[in-house]
Amino acid sequence: MMRLIPNHTSQIKRAKEISFRFDGQTIKAHQGETILVALMGNGIKHLRDAPVDVKPRGAFCCIGLCQECVVKVDGQLVESCRKIATDGLVVQSLRQ
Ligand code: FES
């Protein structure tokens, strides 16, 4: 397949790489990214289970309004779309 638009991704300057833990898995992120962006960048979309039917739930609004992306950080519930990832953070999903 031929690419019609030049690929400039190698020119993107990324911030320093950091890592944190999500359900025991090491997640690589870049400084300044939210937890949600880092998780999605690593292919993780399932953040919690619905309380009634236990179906997988994940981010919906990505602006801090819907609460669908809530995870547990240091024992507190936070919206992963609003919380900036930091090096060494321990994050847990709300999967049952
Ligand atoms: S995705 Fe809606 S609050 Fe985070």
- The name of the CATH architecture is Roll
Beta strand count: 7
Mean pLDDT: 94
Would you state the CATH class? Alpha Beta
Q: What sequence of helices (H) and strands (E) makes up the elements?
A: EEHEEEEE
Helix proportion:
under 10%
Shape: globular
Gap between N and C termini: 43 Å
Largest sheet: 5 strands, mixed
Approximate strand percentage:
25-35%
Helical/strand content category: mainly beta
Rg, nearest Å: 15 Å
Task: Give a structural overview.
This protein is mainly beta. The chain has a single domain, classed as Ubiquitin-like (UB roll) (Roll). Helices cover about 5% and strands about 30% of the residues. The chain has 1 helix and 7 strands, in the order ββαβββββ. The strands form 2 sheets. The chain has a 5-stranded mixed sheet with strand order 2-1-7-5-6, covered by helices on one side. Strands 3-4 form a two-stranded antiparallel sheet. Strand 1 and strand 2 form a beta hairpin. The chain starts with 16 loop residues before the first strand and ends with a strand. The mean pLDDT is about 95. The structure holds FE2/S2 (inorganic) cluster (FES). The site of FE2/S2 (inorganic) cluster has 12 residues, from loops.
